[in-house]
From TrEMBL:
The record marks 173 as: Essential for prephenate dehydratase activity. One of its GO terms (biological process) is L-phenylalanine biosynthetic process. Residues 5-180 form the Prephenate dehydratase domain. GO terms for cellular component: cytoplasm. It is an enzyme of class 4 (lyase). SUPFAM superfamilies: ACT-like, Periplasmic binding protein-like II. This is prephenate dehydratase. It catalyses: prephenate + H(+) = 3-phenylpyruvate + CO2 + H2O. The keyword Lyase applies.
Amino acid sequence: MATNRIAFQGEPGAYSHEACRKARPDMEALPCRTFEDVIDAVRNHQADLAMLPVENSTYGRVADIHHLLPESGLHIIAEAFVRVHISLLAVPGTQLSDIREAMSHTVLLGQCRGFMRDHGIHGITGADTAGSAKIVAERNQPALAALASPLAGEIYGLDRLADEIEDRQNNTTRFLLMSRQPDHERRAEKMLTSFVFRVRNIPAALYKAMGGFATNGVNMTKLESYMVDGVFTATQFYADIEGHPDDPEVRRALDELGYFTSTLNILGTYPADPLRETQTRNG
């Protein structure tokens, strides 16, 4: 039964919430405490889609997310790129000169060092960005501000004293939208396929497994390794490639990959976000 809800991790106003509003503005956003709760909400039919951050252009891979994707039982149906614009939020009537401290997630504090230094503002670590905005609204102290999204300011009734104060103007987070059912029927000018695999225990297995993508002209945009169950000898790889599994060249490359792997799990096939090209050019 459809719920028309999309689940995300964090408080209302989090950047994941912003991603939901941008990618699926017609759906109700459902806040969840953890990434596991987001996945469970979709599996238990409390939501139709999950919005999960996977990587940031400044800070790299989101911790633990690659472990959760293959075990979730969900399928990637889309990606969404969201520019991380940071605002300084304070209780109504506050002036910038009143601010002495700003609360946010430690990652966001690290992205606004220049602004904080120039205005003599001390950073305070909070659990997350939107949660910090909520605390600032509850405490109602003019000297305390939050670093969070403009959406968080809108939700918690805070004034935006300064916008786009991040040190890096191209800071972008990539999100994946996941559902209970795969969608392999769609076609777009650029399709992406994501999968995880483990190579067989034979010499040069990874080198040989990757050879099929090179010889068939399939562009691999991401390849990352991570340990499985905390064991150094058990390594799993996550990969993104351009193309659809039904494309002849992709099918041949995946067939060759399968020969050198012990497990291969396709997580999803989906259109590339139009902002992907912009991010590539700016990177």
